[in-house]
C-alpha cells in the first residue's frame, strides 16, 4: 500500500469547520452534509474541509486531541509504557500533516504540534521495530497489533512480510520431506 | 509507486527452486566438492588434469549444483557430495556464536539458498545445518531491519556489502517502505511523475516505425 492511499483513507475522517457561507443540506453517497450557516460549526469529512479552506470558505476547528498539552501527555505515556498506547485518532499522523499543511493558521501552536506528533511517531516506530525483532527471534507464529495505526503498519509491512516468508521457508527445512519436489508455477 | 518493466521472480529460498528466478539460476551454478562413487566411462576429457579415457571411481572434483542434483541418487551411489566449508562443523560453531560479525557475502553470496539446497543430499549433519541457517537468519535480522529502516539519503553500499543475497532483497524492500513514507511526508507523493516504463522507452525514429 502506498502512503498516499493511506492518506486518502484518512480524508474520510470527520472534522469540525465553521463556514462563512450558507448552503442547504447536500446529499452525497457517503451521507448527508450540512446545512451550512455562517458561524455555525458543522461536521464534514477532511477532504471537503480542506477544499473549502483552500477556497477560503471556512475556518477549520482542530480536533480535540490536536492540542499541545494533550499531545505532551500522550508522548510521556508513550515513552513510559512498553506496549503501544491508544492513539487519539487512528489517522493521527495523516490528519496532522493534512491539517497543518493546509490550515496551519487555524491551529494554535502549529509548529509545536508538528514536533510533538513526530516525537510520538518516532517513539512508536522504535517500539514497532523492537517488537518485530522479538517476534522474529522468539519465532512466534502470531502477534496482536493493538493500537497500531495503518500508516505505522504500512511502513514496515513489505519488509516484515518478506522476512517472515524467508523465515518460514528456512524453518520448514527443519522438517524433512515437507516441501520436496514442490514447484511454484509462474 | 515502483513500476518495473518486468516482475522479478523471488528466489525459492527453501529446498524448492523457482525456475525463473535469476537468483536461483545463479545459485545452481555454485560449485560443490564431490567424490565419484563409480566409473564415468569415456568422460575423461572433462577432467583436464589426467589423460585417461574414463573418470575413475573415487576421484575428487567440483561440479555445479544443478549437475550434482541431477546425478545424485540415494540408492545408486553415483557420487557423494561433500559439504562446502561454510556449512561444516567449524563454521557452524562460528555462526552459532555470533552470526552478526560474519561476512555472508564473501561466504556465499547464496549462504541460505545453497545451505537449503545441501539438504537434498543425505547427510547426518542435515538437521544441524538447517538449524544453523535459521538461527543465523534470526540473529542477523535485527541489523538488517535497523539499517534498512534508518538509512535514508545516504550511501548504503557499506551496509549491504556484508549481506547475503537474500538479506539484500529484504534490505531493498525495507528501503522502499522507508522511501515511500519519507516521500509522502515531504509532500512529494502528491506530485505526478512519469512511470518508469515510459522513461525507459528509447526514442523511436520514424523510419523504424514505418514498415
TrEMBL record, chain A:
<feature type="domain" description="DNA replication complex GINS protein PSF2 N-terminal">
    <location>
        <begin position="2"/>
        <end position="61"/>
    </location>
</feature>
<comment type="similarity">
    <text>Belongs to the GINS2/PSF2 family.</text>
</comment>
<dbReference type="GO" id="GO:0000811">
    <property type="term" value="C:GINS complex"/>
</dbReference>
<dbReference type="Pfam" id="PF05916">
    <property type="entry name" value="Sld5"/>
</dbReference>
<keyword id="KW-0539">Nucleus</keyword>
<dbReference type="InterPro" id="IPR007257">
    <property type="entry name" value="GINS_Psf2"/>
</dbReference>
<dbReference type="InterPro" id="IPR021151">
    <property type="entry name" value="GINS_A"/>
</dbReference>
<dbReference type="Pfam" id="PF25005">
    <property type="entry name" value="PSF2_N"/>
</dbReference>
<comment type="function">
    <text>Required for correct functioning of the GINS complex, a complex that plays an essential role in the initiation of DNA replication, and progression of DNA replication forks. GINS complex is a core component of CDC45-MCM-GINS (CMG) helicase, the molecular machine that unwinds template DNA during replication, and around which the replisome is built.</text>
</comment>
<comment type="subunit">
    <text>Component of the GINS complex.</text>
</comment>
<dbReference type="GO" id="GO:0000727">
    <property type="term" value="P:double-strand break repair via break-induced replication"/>
</dbReference>
<dbReference type="InterPro" id="IPR036224">
    <property type="entry name" value="GINS_bundle-like_dom_sf"/>
</dbReference>
<protein>
    <recommendedName>
        <fullName>DNA replication complex GINS protein PSF2</fullName>
    </recommendedName>
</protein>
<dbReference type="InterPro" id="IPR056784">
    <property type="entry name" value="PSF2_N"/>
</dbReference>
<dbReference type="GO" id="GO:0071162">
    <property type="term" value="C:CMG complex"/>
</dbReference>
<dbReference type="GO" id="GO:0006260">
    <property type="term" value="P:DNA replication"/>
</dbReference>
<feature type="domain" description="GINS subunit">
    <location>
        <begin position="65"/>
        <end position="167"/>
    </location>
</feature>
<keyword id="KW-0235">DNA replication</keyword>
Automatic annotation (TrEMBL), chain B:
<feature type="domain" description="GINS subunit">
    <location>
        <begin position="93"/>
        <end position="185"/>
    </location>
</feature>
<dbReference type="Pfam" id="PF05916">
    <property type="entry name" value="Sld5"/>
</dbReference>
<feature type="domain" description="DNA replication complex GINS protein PSF3 N-terminal">
    <location>
        <begin position="21"/>
        <end position="72"/>
    </location>
</feature>
<keyword id="KW-0235">DNA replication</keyword>
<dbReference type="InterPro" id="IPR010492">
    <property type="entry name" value="GINS_Psf3"/>
</dbReference>
<comment type="function">
    <text>Required for correct functioning of the GINS complex, a complex that plays an essential role in the initiation of DNA replication, and progression of DNA replication forks. GINS complex is a core component of CDC45-MCM-GINS (CMG) helicase, the molecular machine that unwinds template DNA during replication, and around which the replisome is built.</text>
</comment>
<dbReference type="InterPro" id="IPR055221">
    <property type="entry name" value="PSF3_N"/>
</dbReference>
<comment type="function">
    <text>The GINS complex plays an essential role in the initiation of DNA replication.</text>
</comment>
<dbReference type="InterPro" id="IPR038437">
    <property type="entry name" value="GINS_Psf3_sf"/>
</dbReference>
<dbReference type="Pfam" id="PF22466">
    <property type="entry name" value="PSF3_N"/>
</dbReference>
<dbReference type="InterPro" id="IPR036224">
    <property type="entry name" value="GINS_bundle-like_dom_sf"/>
</dbReference>
<keyword id="KW-0539">Nucleus</keyword>
<dbReference type="GO" id="GO:1902975">
    <property type="term" value="P:mitotic DNA replication initiation"/>
</dbReference>
<comment type="subunit">
    <text>Component of the GINS complex.</text>
</comment>
<dbReference type="GO" id="GO:0000811">
    <property type="term" value="C:GINS complex"/>
</dbReference>
<protein>
    <recommendedName>
        <fullName>DNA replication complex GINS protein PSF3</fullName>
    </recommendedName>
</protein>
<comment type="similarity">
    <text>Belongs to the GINS3/PSF3 family.</text>
</comment>
<dbReference type="InterPro" id="IPR021151">
    <property type="entry name" value="GINS_A"/>
</dbReference>
Amino acid at each position: 500500500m502506498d502512503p498516499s492511499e493511506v492518506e486518502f483513507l484518512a480524508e474520510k475522517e470527520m472534522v469540525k469547520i465553521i463556514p462563512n457561507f450558507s448552503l442547504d443540506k447536500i446529499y452525497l453517497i457517503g451521507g448527508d452534509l450540512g446545512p451550512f450557516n455562517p458561524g455555525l460549526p458543522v461536521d464534514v469529512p477532511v477532504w471537503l474541509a480542506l477544499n473549502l479552506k483552500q477556497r477560503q470558505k471556512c475556518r477549520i476547528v482542530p480536533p480535540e486531541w490536536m492540542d499541545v498539552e494533550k499531545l505532551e501527555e500522550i508522548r510521556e505515556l508513550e515513552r513510559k509504557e512498553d506496549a503501544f498506547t491508544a492513539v487519539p485518532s487512528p489517522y493521527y499522523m495523516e490528519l496532522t500533516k493534512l491539517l497543518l499543511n493546509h490550515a496551519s493558521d487555524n491551529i494554535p501552536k502549529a509548529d509545536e504540534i508538528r514536533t510533538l506528533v513526530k516525537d510520538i511517531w518516532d517513539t512508536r516506530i522504535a517500539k514497532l521495530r523492537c517488537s518485530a525483532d522479538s517476534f522474529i527471534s522468539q519465532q512466534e507464529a502470531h502477534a496482536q497489533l493493538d493500537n497500531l495505526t495503518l500508516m505505522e503498519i504500512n511502513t514496515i509491512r513489505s519488509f516484515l512480510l518478506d522476512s517472515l516468508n524467508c523465515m518460514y521457508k528456512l524453518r520448514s527445512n527443519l522438517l524433512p520431506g515437507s516441501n520436496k519436489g514442490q514447484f511454484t508455477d509462474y | 509507486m515502483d513500476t518495473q518493466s518486468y516482475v522479478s521472480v523471488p528466489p525459492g529460498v527453501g529446498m524448492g527452486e523457482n525456475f525463473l528466478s535469476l537468483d536461483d539460476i545463479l545459485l545452481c551454478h555454485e560449485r560443490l566438492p564431490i567424490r565419484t562413487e563409480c566409473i564415468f566411462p569415456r568422460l575423461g576429457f572433462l577432467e583436464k588434469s589426467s589423460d585417461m579415457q574414463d573418470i575413475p571411481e573415487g576421484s575428487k572434483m567440483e561440479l555445479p549444483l544443478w549437475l550434482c542434483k541431477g546425478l545424485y541418487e540415494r540408492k545408486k551411489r553415483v557420487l557423494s557430495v561433500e559439504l562446502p566449508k561454510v556449512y561444516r562443523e567449524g563454521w557452524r560453531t562460528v555462526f552459532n556464536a555470533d552470526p552478526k560479525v560474519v561476512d555472508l557475502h564473501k561466504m556465499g553470496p547464496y549462504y541460505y539458498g545453497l545451505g537449503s539446497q545441501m539438504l537434498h543430499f543425505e547427510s547426518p549433519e542435515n538437521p544441524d545445518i538447517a538449524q544453523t541457517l535459521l538461527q543465523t537468519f534470526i540473529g542477523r535480522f535485527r541489523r538488517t531491519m535497523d539499517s534498512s529502516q534508518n538509512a535514508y539519503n545516504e550511501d548504503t553500499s557499506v551496509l549491504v556489502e556484508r549481506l547475503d543475497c537474500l538479506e539484500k532483497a529484504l534490505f531493498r524492500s525495507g528501503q522502499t517502505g522507508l522511501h515511500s513514507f519519507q516521500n509522502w511526508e515531504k509532500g512529494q507523493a502528491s506530485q505526478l511523475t512519469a512511470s518508469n516504463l515510459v522513461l525507459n522507452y528509447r526514442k523511436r525514429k520514424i523510419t523504424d516505425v514505418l514498415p
